[in-house]
Amino acid sequence: MKLMQKYGAAAAALASVMLFSACAEGADIGAARAEVCVNTPTCVVVEVTAGDEEKSLYDALAVFAERGELTMDGSWSQYGFYLTSLNGTDADEGKQLYWMVYTSLEERDGVAYSDPSYGTWEYEGKQLFGASYGVSGLPLVAGEWYALVYQSL
Amino acid sequence: MRSSISPSEIPARVRFLTPSRRVAASALMCALLLVVQFVLSFVPGVELVTALFLSFCVLFGARAGVLTATAFSLLRCFLFGFTPSVIVLYLVYFNAFALFFGFLGTKRLAAWLCPALLALLAGGTLCAALVPMPVSALELPRIRTLAWVLFGVLCALLVLWAALLRRGEAGRRTAAYAAFAALFTVLFTLLDDVLTPLIYGWTAEAALAYFYTGFLAMLPQTACAAVSVALLYPVLARIFLGRAQNAPQTLDE
Predict the structure, then answer these.
(1) Cα–Cα distance, B180 to B154 (Å, whole number)
(2) A62 part of a folded domain
(3) Which chain B residue's Cα is nearest to A139?
(4) Is-contact A118 A132, C-beta < 8 A?
(5) How far is A67 from chain B (nearest CA, A)?
(6) Is the ipTM of this complex over 0.85?
(7) How wide is the angle at C-alpha B13 spanned by C-alphas B11 and B15, nearest 5°?
(8) B27 and A CB contact within 8 Å
(9) Nearest C-alpha of chain B: how many angstroms from A77?
């Protein structure tokens, strides 16, 4: 029984490490390459391993959706693409629950892409800040992380 | 004949409504604003709230305007959610809007006001189109295009005013209202740029980033407000006047 518990705990630990560390096979988005590292109904984390600043996080999500790795829905607004649903979880305006966008991309060429006062979110010891833009306004920069988290405003 | 009535005469004719009729008119306008805002929320950059509410305030006066503005600002939360910064923004902006256009309705406008306002706005828009802005490279081409479109709309209004509209008081007033609508739409975004960072306690850097992303909404909305007021005000004035002619014209009646 004790051994079973030990193996069970080990398996759970392994699964958790796999969930948070092992990223899925990467996808090419233009010249960029990105990987989905967390893919749950309430959280999606993308790591960009090779950059293409003419492509956006929206382009990456569209490629992942095309490959069937995730599902997404939304509409185009004045501010760009407004993400309303990811992996079947819909934003709920009545309960003030939205898909919030966080990124490790802070400032580039004088443009502030995120700010801690918009909110912070931690992933594997890295601090990600609330994004200044929606998914279609965030360029894919090599080495940066992008998180979509379903939470209250 | 209705067509013989100059729009400059309309405000004085419609303003004197009994309190009960004022409440009824405000309730109807509030419902109309909610429907229009909700339906057009699915069409990016298009809004008719400014044209409808401006015409209502000019013709029905500041009191009816403030009543409608307050009801609209609070009731729209049931459709769009109860966000504190948006509630404060709408209450401040739409009440100021109602007071301004409510009192402006009866005033005679200086001839230089419209071209001066249009030139000022066109100058600002040209700056937005030409001056480098610290915004995402993915959004910059859209901002530049929108700025050129708005610049074109403002120049067209200026040419129209110079060539045709200044000949008649009606056209001059319509052009002036369109220019003021554009100015107020710019002020709406600027007020949001101040209120939202204050309410959420953002840093100056975050507030500045918010200001620049605001251009994405401000430019199409300003163009839409100017065009919709220029086109719809004369039509709405006749519709509202038609309704008001069936009603008592003074408080004593």
Answers:
(1) 12
(2) yes
(3) B138
(4) yes
(5) 24
(6) no
(7) 65
(8) no
(9) 5
Domain boundaries, chain B: 2-245
Query: What are the φ/ψ torsions at residue A98 (nearest 5 degrees)?
Result: -135, 165
Of A78, A96, A137, the CB nearest to B44: A78
Q: Which CATH number does the domain housing residue A108 bear?
A: 2.170.130.30
Range of the domain at A28: 24-152
The verdict on a CB contact (< 8 Å) between A115 and B44 is no
Confirm or reject contact between B124 and chain A (CB < 8 A): no
Give pLDDT < 70 ranges for chain B: 1-16, 106, 164-167, 243-253
- Rounded Cα distance between B123 and B126, Å, is 5
**Among B138, B146, B149, B199, the residue to mutate for chain A (most A Cβ within 10 A):** B138
Per-residue pLDDT tens digits for B126-170: 999 999 999 999 999 999 999 999 999 999 988 888 886 656 777
Q: Which pair of structure tokens corresponds to residue B83?
A: 């966000």
Return the percent helix, strand and coil in chain B, to nearest 5. Answer: 80, 0, 20
Split into its structural domains, chain A has a count of: 1
Span A20-74, pLDDT tens digits: 446 777 888 889 999 999 999 999 999 999 999 999 999 999 999 999 999 999 9
Closest CA to B180 of B105, B92, B85: B105
Nearest-CA distance from B129 to chain A in Å? 17
Contact residues on chain B for A60, CB-CB shorter than 8 A:
none
Q: What is the DSSP letter of A45?
A: E
**Structural domain contains residue A80:** yes
Kindly list the residues from chain A whose CB atom is less than 8 angstroms away from the CB atom of residue B139: 80, 133, 137
Nearest CA in chain A to B47: A78
Within a domain: A34: yes
* A6-28 pLDDT, tens digit each: 444 444 444 444 444 467 778 88
Nearest-angstrom CA–CA distance, B251 and B18: 5
Fill in the amino acid letter for B3. Answer: S
In a domain, A124, yes or no: yes
With 50 as the cut, is the pLDDT of residue A2 above it? no
